[in-house]
Amino acid sequence: MSNGARSVRISAPIERRRSRIAVERLLLHAGGVAELSRSRGEVVGALLVVAASVALIVAAFAFRAGDDLAFFVLIAAFAAGTTGFGLHIASREARFRREKR
After folding, report:
1. 66-73: long-range contacts (C-beta < 8 A, 24 or more apart)?
2. What is the DSSP letter of 68?
3. Do 54 and 92 belong together in one domain?
């Protein structure tokens, strides 16, 4: 490889039950390069925050324009954004615990 990392060939087949984290640790321990990815909860939480932010801005303009029902969308978007942020942080903390950081 051009970046100086050693290539590791594993002769024994890897069991399906073994987690992806264990395989990445094995590669890192052997000197290979492994990319650690985000957990599904982190991605979903971040997407929920982005969607709630857009809905919050649109609802704020609609409420200012005189649409009284947009107030409920404001409350729902704020609640969804708070929930998404909590989901993102909790999933990140769980991933750190699994990886023992």
Report:
1. none
2. T
3. yes
Same domain, 25 and 61: no
Query: pTM for the full model?
Result: 0.61
pLDDT > 90: percent of the chain: 57
Same domain for 91 and 57, yes or no, is yes
Segments forming the whole domain that contains residue 31: 1-37
Q: Are 41 and 96 in contact (CB under 8 A)?
A: no
User: What are the backbone angles phi and psi of residue 34, rounded to the nearest 5°?
Assistant: -125, 140
- 3-13 pLDDT tens trace: 555 555 555 55
Instruction: At 22, list the tokens.
Output: 């264990």
User: Does 81 lie in the same domain as 48?
Assistant: yes
Contact 18, 67 (CB under 8 A): no
